[in-house]
Design brief:
Shape: globular
Helix content: 40-55%
Largest sheet: 5 strands, parallel
Strand order of the largest sheet: 2-1-3-6-7
Mean pLDDT: 96
Number of strands: 7
CATH superfamily: Flavodoxin domain
Low-confidence stretches: none
Structural class: alpha/beta
CATH topology: Rossmann fold
Distance between the termini: 11 Å
Number of helices: 7
Number of domains: 1
Bound molecules: flavin mononucleotide
CATH class: Alpha Beta
Order of helices and strands: EHEHHEHEEEHHEH
CATH architecture: 3-Layer(aba) Sandwich
Length: 194
């Protein structure tokens, strides 16, 4: 079944040689081959400030670049988020984007003014995170804290489920053939729209 897919590039560095950029391109290539419709959000290219207050979070209108990203996210059935692990978590720019985007009214609404419910039910996601350490170390020594927070506290909470993950470790000095294998498997996921 053909899907509408949003690829969210969370790498702050626009340099095309970044692995995250090659991974997003591979996913997009596969998705196009699989007959899916793709729209892309490149967080590094968006102009938005950091969120500064709860009042702004709950009552302020999002800046235009964020409103446009929200429209793309609402349009899509499936989201693919790609980012590198920086200091154990997603880069600050990507987190700034998440804070700006996942506001009440877009991600949540409060029933009786208190009890939150997710507005994004029916959507699914995949998180692709790259890191210098072996991915098993991130998963079993650090318990993948940052990733679990994004999955549960942000995405599941807003109704996005299931959220699948691909962790790509040992990126420093990765052999070209290893990188190629990853790109091939990410392209296959794109073709399946998964
Ligand atoms: C500011 C910064 C912090 C980083 N922190 C970590 C870290 O905590 N753990 C880790 O395994 N790798 C860390 N790395 C390595 C990156 O995760 C790695 O370079 C990246 O995933 C490679 O993908 P890229 O080519 O798309 O940047 C860090 C890199 C930078 C630039």
């Amino acid at each position: 079944m053909s899907k509408r897919i949003a690829i969210i590039q969370g790498h702050p560095d626009p340099a095309p040689e970044r692995l995250c950029r090659a991974l997003a391109d591979a996913y997009a290539r596969g998705a196009a081959r699989g007959g899916h419709e793709v729209k892309r959000i490149d967080v590094a290219a968006l102009d938005f400030p950091l969120l500064r207050s709860q009042v702004e979070f709950e009552r302020g209108g999002p800046p235009p670049a964020i409103a446009q990203a929200q429209e793309t996210l609402r349009w899509a059935d499936h989201w693919v988020m790609v980012y590198p692990i920086w200091l154990g978590d997603a880069p600050a720019l990507f987190k700034g984007f998440i804070e700006q985007t996942f506001r009440p009214g877009f991600a949540l609404r409060y029933r009786d003014g208190r009890i939150p419910y997710g507005l994004l039910k029916g959507k699914t996601a995949r998180v692709i995170a790259t890191m210098g350490m072996p991915s098993l170390v991130y998963r079993f020594f650090f318990f993948a804290h940052g990733l679990r927070n994004l999955k549960r506290n942000v995405l599941n909470y807003a109704g996005v489920s299931p959220v699948r993950e691909t962790l790509i470790g040992s990126t420093r000095g990765m052999l070209p053939e290893t990188a190629e294998k990853w790109l091939t498997s990410i392209e296959a996921l794109g073709r399946e729209g998964r």
